[in-house]
Amino acid sequence: MSVSTERHVTWRRPEVAPSLLARLFDSKPFLIAICLLPAVGLLLVFLTYPLGLGIWLAFTDTHVGRGGYFVGFENFESLWYDRVFWGAVFYTVFYTGVATVLKFGLGLWLALLLNENLPFKSLLRAIILLPWIVPTVLSAIAFWWMYDAQFSIISYVLVDVLGWRETYIDFLGTPWHARWSLIAANVWRGIPFVAISLLAGLQTISPSLYEAALLDGASSWQRFTRITAPLLMPILAVVLTFSVLFTFTDFQLVYAITRGGPINSTHLMATLAFQRGIPGGQLGEGAAIAVSMIPFLILATMFSYFALARRKWQQGGDDE
Amino acid sequence: MSEAVAQRPRKVKADLPERLSWQSNRRRLVTVYLPLLCFVFVLLFPFYWMTVTTFKPNAELYNYAENNPFWVRSPTLANINKLLFETSYPSWLWNTMLVAVCSTVLSLVASVLAAYAIQRLRFRGSTYVGLAIYIAYLVPPSILFIPLATMVFQLGLFDSPLALILTYPTFLIPFCTWLLIGYFKSIPYELEECALMDGASRLQILWRITLPLAVPGLISAGIFSFTLSWNEFIYALAFISSSENKTVPVAILTELVQGDVYQWGALMAGSLLGSLPVAIFYSFFVDYYVSSLTGAVKE
């Protein structure tokens, strides 16, 4: 620094010598480190470390307020013979599968409808996203009230207005009713996300492709399967990955409406892990349940991502 | 087919009259407007039901035989009154607001810096850092809450809003960073080079040039983070135990639901009031919200 000032002694610029701090902030490695520190630090401490800690906890017998010892696969062994756990695994897979299919079917339909030339387009889009904005627990409570055994508005319409049924439906009282009711609530909440994301994908498809197909005499079904579907595939893959991931690890909806009941029939793996881990105090077993979600998640992510990505590549290669 | 033929030219030439023929119009009604109406009805009905229940007196609420359940005959504010003055709802609302705002600001600052480093300072392995942050978004809170609960307990943060303010960024930062990387990409690099020539330091460039240009991206990320932290449930349920420190979603579910007789009026009032702030906030920035949602998916 001093050297440079002496060299410029004949012609002196007022602030020729930047302070040490300024120079430090102009050195790239330092700047990179400073910039990455908050984000990477927070993620390492509160995400990566807990992920490892969770896996470690799954192999210990930790309880609330008491450190645990390494017990090997004991937690997993006891889960292996635990019918409630297998019930939760079954329902989680079922819930994710059915809800995803319904969400994407209906969401795609809604996206196609919204892609038509409509008046009040942006208002409509804003309204449709509402279920996605509102806190899940709060809308879940609304569903809970709509599923009430005595005062359900759905039963009221079916029985007293339309006369299609004789008795009120006990939505949350029997296992299968409760399972389907929860799926319906999940689909209700998920449709807007799928529809708006797919709408964004639809809007990137050039109208000239449809015009060309129209001139060639393609029917509307052919236009859908040959143009819309393949061009939508990349965005569909991403949305599907996210949707599957978040449905599989869903917690709020089930906890708010049934808390796993009746007779543990609607436990998802996340709610079961919570019930065993936090109120039950068996942190080790809760962690083991949570950790056993990881293989499913990796599998689901890989499947939805690679299966669809490969198809996109194949079809893109054919078309262009 | 005829529908498509009739529709297509309309899209291309917007100055053509809206209705081309009686038949296509009617067909459009059945294939587009009717299903759309059903969708909107189903998607909005729970909110309508929430609102109607909030303003119903108990006598009407539990008597469908004499009252039309779809309408309120004698609206009452009793439920809202009870919620605001007989429970600690205002303090729950305040907690939620505090946690949402603090964690949003924290994640925005961290994400802006990280996105700037990854996208603009380009170093060896920057794409891998970006990818790692993206993968972090795929780690769901449901598998993290048990180890996090033990950590929070050991750090002495249990039952304090700070626990939530520090843990929410784990799902906010990945999203915001990813969004902002995309946004920074769209800002021409030449602008920064000019500033660099003029002798601006890197931080000055970030503060004076890049950030002002990235304001829409910042707003999108901010709104998304705010709504996400307002919605968050599992961490708030696991890390907070005393009534006055709870956030709205948790408090409504755990404090208002007592015993076997549910106070549906008060519950619905709580849900409505808890949804309104975020819905109003959202309605001001719908376009930013949609662009962040779709932008993040498209990346």
UniProtKB/TrEMBL annotation, chain A:
Transmembrane segments: 30-59, 88-114, 126-147, 190-210, 231-249, 287-308
Entries under InterPro entries matching the protein: MetI-like, MetI-like_sf
Keywords of the record: Cell membrane, Membrane, Transmembrane, Transmembrane helix, Transport
Residue ranges of domain ABC transmembrane type-1 in the record: 89-304
Subcellular compartments: Cell membrane
Main location: membrane
CDD domains noted in UniProt: TM_PBP2
PROSITE patterns (alphabetical): ABC_TM1 (PS50928)
Membrane-topology descriptor: Multi-pass membrane protein
GO CC list: plasma membrane
GO biological process, one term: transmembrane transport
Family according to the record: Belongs to the binding-protein-dependent transport system permease family.
Protein name: Sugar ABC transporter permease
Organism: Teichococcus oryzae
TrEMBL record, chain B:
Main location: membrane
InterPro entries: BP-dep_ABC_trans_perm, MetI-like, MetI-like_sf
SUPFAM superfamilies: MetI-like
Location(s), subcellular: Cell membrane
Domain ABC transmembrane type-1: 93-285
Keyword Transmembrane helix listed: yes
TM regions (residue ranges): 29-49, 92-116, 128-150, 162-184, 205-228, 264-290
Gene Ontology cellular component list: plasma membrane
Alphabetical UniProt keywords: Cell membrane, Membrane, Transmembrane, Transmembrane helix, Transport
Topology class, membrane: Multi-pass membrane protein
Entry keyword Repeat: no
Protein family membership: Belongs to the binding-protein-dependent transport system permease family.
UniProt-recorded name of the protein: Carbohydrate ABC transporter permease
Native species: Teichococcus oryzae
